[in-house]
Fold:
Amino acid sequence: MGAEGVYWGMIFVEGSPRPQEQAGATVLAIERFGVKVYETVLGTEDLVGRITQVRKTTDDPLTFEIRFENTGNVQLRPTGRIDIIDQSGEIVRNIRIEEFPLLPGKARILSVSDTTELSLTAGIYRALVTIDYGDDDLAGGTRDFRLR
Structure:
């Protein structure tokens, strides 16, 4: 049949119309909700992700914008971190990237801020971004920046 990767759809459940009183008027209300359904063809999973952009957007709080793409064929739930490295090569800050879902063929722009109370001193730094998307390999990206 040639099926591979993940397929998804939505099952909607809808109730019967019910009259409800609102602000002196009677309206018909219909409740509706959806359930996402995923099906993965076992043995065909291709977990592939990549960072295509890292940029510093603000100094205070120190914030980065990271563009991550899912170029595989299954949904990913990546997590990661940003290590801030000073000119001596020492990691002076570690910023966590919370888990996020990403469907195949899609990209997500993440805005990640340093919530540490203590500001970094003026100088030149490197942001090393590492994202674990569930494969043996990790996605990585860097951005050098200056704080004044």
